[in-house]
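RECORD TYPE: inverse folding
INPUT: structure tokens
STRUCTURE:
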């Protein structure tokens, strides 16, 4: 990656403006990759993001050793300095009064989605997955229960100096899940000096993070327990004291194609804990509610993702969508590819609509 992530890898600097205004909502990997592509093609791009820095989860959740945040921020800065991209931070875009989502701590301003759609020639929605899923079990509302996204985000803003409030810590931290968020949260918890249990309802072979990652954090000191699912958060005075688990065995495949965890009769046990971190998945966060989506003609799928066609175009022709808000939670590479695919489609659509010729750089890269 060099000293920084180069989002505008098709050209060295912006050489022209075709006079078309693009709004990109979300400065994560998909949004920034699309911005770089469109800036090289001569579009005037404004990027909106609710965080105080661009980069999305690359900067505010993913561990620094996986992707150094300063490289991402430097890449975004290049877009501003060499490509005249305007990055508008601390601004939450929503179609009506915004719902509170994780990571909203620094959203000081609001921008109306319908106004953005009206005022720009093309719009890309790349708002990601800023809403964690937690199981509906007794005690889940107790103090000392959080999500991996919230836990990692709180630590990152504290480390960046955006807040002096130290994130919650504990002596015995239980992390529930088997994906990368679970690994990252368990590793962070370990670095705070806690005893850490990582509990997953299937076996290590089915864990989305993979055997290598789980074995790695086990070597660092994390206790890994497989085939166990939480059934209750035990609290005292509304403060977490322990987690009750049910032992599981693997049954026939479920809708995901993986073996379905089935309870083992009588197989209950508890783990003492003063902090519980649920890393049980995130949901897409489109910048509008379903009722407003219906009103303005933007289709949202049942799983909360924005519906798009094969060109990443939504049911509103000038509005495209990309990244995790379309695919559900993914990794950085697929999100970047998705953003680039959307940007190419946006360029094709605009040139076809306006009758302008596709640029020479586009022709030679086809």
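DESIGNED SEQUENCE:
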């Amino acid at each position: 990656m060099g000293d920084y992530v180069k989002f505008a890898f098709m050209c060295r600097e912006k050489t022209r403006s075709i006079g078309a205004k693009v709004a990109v909502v979300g400065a994560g990997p998909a949004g920034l990759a699309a911005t770089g592509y469109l800036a090289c093609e001569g579009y005037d791009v404004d990027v909106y993001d609710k965080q105080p820095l661009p980069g999305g989860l690359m900067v505010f959740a993913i561990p620094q050793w996986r992707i150094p945040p300063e490289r991402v921020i430097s890449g975004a800065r290049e877009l501003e300095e060499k490509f005249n991209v305007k990055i508008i931070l601390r601004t939450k875009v929503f179609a009506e009064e915004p719902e509170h989502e994780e990571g909203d701590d620094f959203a000081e301003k609001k921008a109306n989605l319908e106004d953005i759609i009206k005022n720009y020639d093309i719009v890309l929605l790349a708002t990601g997955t800023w809403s964690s899923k937690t199981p509906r079990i007794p005690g889940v509302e107790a103090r000392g229960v959080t999500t991996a996204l919230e836990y990692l985000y709180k630590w990152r803003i504290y480390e960046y100096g955006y807040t002096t409030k130290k994130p919650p810590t504990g002596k015995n931290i239980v992390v529930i899940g088997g994906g990368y968020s679970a690994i990252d949260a368990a590793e962070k918890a370990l670095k705070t000096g806690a005893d850490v249990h990582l509990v997953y309802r299937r076996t290590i072979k089915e864990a989305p993070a993979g055997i290598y990652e789980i074995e790695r954090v086990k070597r660092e000191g994390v206790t890994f327990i497989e085939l166990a699912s939480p059934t209750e958060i035990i609290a005292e005075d509304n403060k977490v004291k322990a987690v009750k688990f049910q032992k599981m065995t693997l049954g026939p495949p479920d809708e995901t194609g993986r073996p379905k965890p089935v309870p083992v009769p009588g197989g209950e046990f508890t783990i003492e804990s003063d902090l519980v971190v649920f890393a049980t998945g995130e949901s897409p966060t489109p910048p509008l509610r379903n009722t407003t989506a219906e009103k303005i003609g933007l289709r949202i799928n049942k799983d909360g993702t924005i519906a798009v066609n094969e060109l990443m175009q939504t049911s509103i022709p000038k509005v495209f969508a990309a990244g995790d808000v379309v695919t559900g939670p993914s990794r950085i590479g697929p999100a970047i590819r998705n953003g680039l695919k959307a940007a190419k489609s946006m360029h094709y659509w605009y040139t076809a609509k306006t009758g302008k010729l596709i640029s020479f750089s586009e022709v030679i890269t086809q």
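NOTES: The first helix runs from residue 29 to 40.
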